[in-house]
């Protein structure tokens, strides 16, 4: 959400400055800020070791009660690899000061996950419950289109009049093996990920986009309202 907040803050500074001959320069400047923020996000994901996320072999204690072992959750992970989280592609960006409009089209072309084997254990008192996971999954073309219209006032500041979000996922392909409490759930989980989830994303697309628009708009405006010092730096 910082991407949009910084874009709007910069927009206000440019409009208050006034001269028409700097309009195009300011528009390109805002475009550059947005591109820079997206690149920062991609770099941050990689620097945190999340792309690629690779675990050759490790054991994780997910939860343990303080002092006692009456309740414990842990997992043993072997040969896990997740790739593609940082490959954020800017398909289109268009910012207009005069029309007070920002259009942005970004996507994650491909996210893949492969697990050699993952074994989870839940210990409750003297009982233990086990689960196993292996296999692969891929998500193709996660895409978000943003069309934002804003209003600007010297006193009122920047506010978002309308924010349209168009979220889509081209394809999900799951081929996982899941056993929980000695019950093989692989077919059920794969059917849900390959068929049910994509169908529901399409069926409830308008509702999902509306919800995302409301949530993102609220987060952006909170960022803007808390960015007074950054705004003053641009204006003065």
Structural class, from helix and strand content?
alpha+beta
Helix content: 25-40%
In terms of DSSP E residues, the strand content is over 45%
User: pLDDT average, as an integer?
Assistant: 82
Give the beta-strand count: 7
Count of all domains: 1
Following the backbone from N to C, one meets helices and strands in this order, namely HHEEEEEEEHHH
Spatial gap, N to C terminus: 25 Å
Shape: elongated
For this structure, the quaternary state is single chain
- Radius of gyration of CA atoms, rounded to a whole number: 23 Å
Low-confidence stretches: 1-22, 228-236
- How many helices? 5
Largest sheet: 7 strands, antiparallel
Keywords: Signal
InterPro entries: Haemolymph_juvenile_hormone-bd (IPR010562), To_sf (IPR038606)
Written overview of the protein:
With 236 residues, the chain is of the alpha+beta class. It has one domain (2-63, 81-117, 135-235). Helices cover 37% and strands 47% of the residues. The chain has five helices and seven strands, in the order H-H-E-E-E-E-E-E-E-H-H-H. Strands 1, 2, 3, 4, 5, 6 and 7 form a seven-stranded antiparallel sheet that branches. A hairpin with a 6-residue loop joins strand 1 and strand 2 (71-83). Helix 1 (2-17) runs antiparallel to helix 2 (23-47). 11% of the residues are buried. Mean pLDDT is 82; it is low at 1-22 and 228-236. InterPro entries: Haemolymph_juvenile_hormone-bd, To_sf. Pfam families: JHBP. Residues 1-17 form the signal peptide. Keywords: Signal.
């Amino acid at each position: 959400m910082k991407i949009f907040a910084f874009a709007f803050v910069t927009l206000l500074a440019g409009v208050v400055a006034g001269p028409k001959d700097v309009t195009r320069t300011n528009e390109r400047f805002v475009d550059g800020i947005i591109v820079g923020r997206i690149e920062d996000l991609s770099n941050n994901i990689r620097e945190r070791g999340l792309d690629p996320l690779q675990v050759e072999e490790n054991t994780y204690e997910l939860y343990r009660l303080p002092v006692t072992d009456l309740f414990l959750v842990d997992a043993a992970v072997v040969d896990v690899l997740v790739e593609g989280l940082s490959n954020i592609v800017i398909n289109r960006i268009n910012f207009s000061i005069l029309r007070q409009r920002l259009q942005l089209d970004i996507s994650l072309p491909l996210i893949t996950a492969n697990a050699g084997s993952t074994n989870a254990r839940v210990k409750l008192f003297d009982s233990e419950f086990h689960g196993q996971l292996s296999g692969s999954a891929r998500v193709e073309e996660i895409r978000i289109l943003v069309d934002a219209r804003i209003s600007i006032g010297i006193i009122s500041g920047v506010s978002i009049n309308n924010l349209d979000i168009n979220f889509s996922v081209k394809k999900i392909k799951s081929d996982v093996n899941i056993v929980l409490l000695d019950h093989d759930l692989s077919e059920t989980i794969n059917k849900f990920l390959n068929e049910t989830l994509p169908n529901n994303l399409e069926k409830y697309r308008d509702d999902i986009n509306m919800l995302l628009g409301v949530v993102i708009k609220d987060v952006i405006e909170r960022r803007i309202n808390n960015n007074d010092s950054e705004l003053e730096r641009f204006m003065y």
